[in-house]
Amino acid sequence: MSEKKDNSEVIDREDGIGSDQFNKHKLDADVALTALQNREGPPLVLDEATNRRLLRKIDWHLLPIMCFVYGLNFLDKTTLSYASITGLQQDIHISGADYSWLGSIFYFGYLAWEWPTNLLLQRLPIAKYSAFNILAWGLVLCLFAVVSNFSGALAIRFFLGVFEAAVTPGFALITSQWYTRREQGSRTGIWFSFNGFAQIFGGLVAYGIARGADTHGYTIAAWKVIFLVTGLMTVMAGLLFLWIVPDNQLNARWLSPEERILAIERVRVNQQGIGNKHFKLYQLKEALLDPLVWAFAFYSIVSTIPNGGITNFFSLLIKGFGYTSEESLLYGTPAGAVEVVTLIGGLWLGDFLNQRILVSIVFLLIAMVGMIMIVAVPVDHPTIRLGGFYLTQAAPVPFVALLSLISSNVAGYTKKTTVAAIYLIAYCTGNIIGPQVFQAKDAPTYRPAEITIITCWAVAVIDLLYIWWHTRRLNIEKERIRAEPGYVKLENQEFLDLTDRENSEFVYTL
């Protein structure tokens, strides 16, 4: 019995895909398959030493610019929080309710463009399209300095959301292209952790600008300086990204022709390939019918209701503990350090133990303890309540763990971009709701919002436990299929652009 026939039967047994459709898979395979088949000469050997050397080269070229851009991605969203206590609200005459809508409108833009931008990430060169969006959001952020009313601020925030919508899914796809599943969690944790570095940097810069304005004064308002500085930094980052980051291994200037093929070979274990430009309707349908996808989406909504509130109100929340405006800027910076440590440590530990989900649950429980401290400790103990706020910065760990699992556990390029879009649409929805939970009438303690955050995180823990259980059950089922008599693995099956459900060789990361 031929290998092709045997494996057509295996695929048929799992999803009803017959021989004709299997041949279509091979004709419409991943771009890596063509590169491997067209290569001439002796086979290249990827030994352990070569693999380590190649990984270092990839890390040094990709991670620094991804970290820098992702830090700016967070900083540019939170400039609103810094501007709010350096005169923005007074200068453009907005109320507390208007400020809440400025926090939410960003995510309306993000939400409106998330699905189209994921389609474009598949169809267009991923690095060039990402660089365009980075440049565009930097220029838009600079324009905030000329805003003079609420309507103009709304428009700027909306288009910031539009252009930033490509960054997180784009980075998740780039991570899945270049890194093995055992490497993806820690690398995602590294570039996402620069949210925390941005919080440290942004708080210090905003504090310095505010102090300078008080001491020496500026020819323009301090909040305008904040927008111009962060916007111009983003434009510079976009130009660097365009120069450094390739669309895939096959056009990486900093790899030799042999290293490009080896860089593809090293991710063969992922069973995902490196990209396919063709939209496949059946993969879209599979994503929409996959209960695991909707469990991811539910977590994204529930967990980002707290995120949307805290991101936009953390300076005002700290001020409500009894600190001054300038102190709230300065005391917000250690929270970024907590986020950095928990993200890098949590995602590394999850990869080391091969238990990203269970490890991330522990960090979410730590965040819950922090918020309970804010609620339960009397207002005359501001230091303890501030310590509770720092603990809440462990909350992003499970969100990033699930984002990394989209890289690791979703195969089929159309399915992967669809799942990323669903996850981030849910993220937008939660972040739209979040700022509305913080009502001006509840200032300065915002007690109802704090209780809502605790409730959301408790529900999120239950959802994470379900995801862990369901993923483990899928692995057991695939192991049973592989053990059946007559099962044969297809040649180059890893690069046929099969989905995780189609491919019996695919093993889900827990």
From TrEMBL:
**Compartment annotation:** Membrane
* A GO MF term: transmembrane transporter activity
Q: Which UniProt keywords apply?
A: Membrane, Transmembrane, Transmembrane helix, Transport
Quote the SUPFAM superfamilies the UniProt record gives: MFS general substrate transporter
Q: Name one GO cellular component term.
A: membrane
TM ranges: 134-152, 158-179, 191-210, 222-245, 287-309, 329-350, 357-377, 389-406, 418-439, 451-469
PANTHER family from the UniProt entry: ALLANTOATE PERMEASE, PERMEASE-RELATED
Protein name as it appears in the record: Major facilitator superfamily (MFS) profile domain-containing protein
State the organism named in the record: Gomphillus americanus
